[in-house]
What we know:
Blueprint: H1 6-16, H2 20-29, H3 34-51, E1 59-67, E2 72-80, H4 83-86, H5 89-104, H6 111-115, H7 127-138, E3 143-150, E4 154-158, E5 164-172, H8 179-193, H9 205-221, H10 226-244, E6 250-251, E7 254-258, H11 259-265, E8 268-277
Antiparallel strand pairs: 1-2, 2-3, 4-5, 5-8, 6-7
Helix pairs in contact: 1-2, 2-3, 3-7, 5-7, 9-10
Amino acid sequence: MAEITAAAVMALREKTGLPMMECKKALQECGGDTAAAVDWLRKQGIKTQSLRADRETSCGRLAVYTDTARGVGAIIELRCESPPVAGSQDFRDLAHDIAKTLALGPGAATPEALLAQRSEAHPERTLAELKDDLFNRMREVFDLARIHRIDAPCGGYAHHDGSKASLVQISGDTAGAKAAEVAKDVAMHVVALAPQAITKEDLDPAVVAKEREILTEAARKEGKPENIIAKMIEGRLRNFFAQCVLLEQPFVKDDKQTVGQLVKSAGIGITRVENWKLGG
């Protein structure tokens, strides 16, 4: 058997990030061949993953990637077992890499198809290989739970802890100087206030009718004359729309203007919103 030197073990540890004893065992199993030892460690990790596949992955993070010039945006949900791992830089980097690969690559219909693709950050590796290597280092099950790509100019925003994120598809002057910045700001607004619809017309008519009924009954209980109730209801409905309709909401960074006024000033429109929370 070839002599396994401390330098060889250390080099393998630096390459894989795995404990010294595991690296030494791998080199022993592979006769000191570093490349073979890396492959052996990866296979051992895959075996371990299969034994832990039923573990609950209730933590994780959402990640987004957008490129207004290329006209694409992507959002993904990567799950793990614990908050410390979800907050680690390696896990954050993997989530971002997956989102970027989904956005800039050929696209994918399923998480499995996406993981089989080569990483944008590390083109020599697939996302699945990077995911398996990170499992080997962290010993937690990872699950790419959801993916979504929009093939149109988008703004994107993810909360700092990865618990909430959104994509906002834009139309109009998407190449304008302010378009990308405003689209990102609107995505941040969506994460903060979670509107139910983009425009008043997008709201379920039954929801509006019910609100109108509630407001009308409240006005009657206040003793308001029937001839002015209709005008009062229209005013109060405006407040209702300002709470739940994106373009009617006061902009979260400047409540002196609505989101509708903000996007109009940038020459763009909002055509679609994806607003996600971790865990669905």
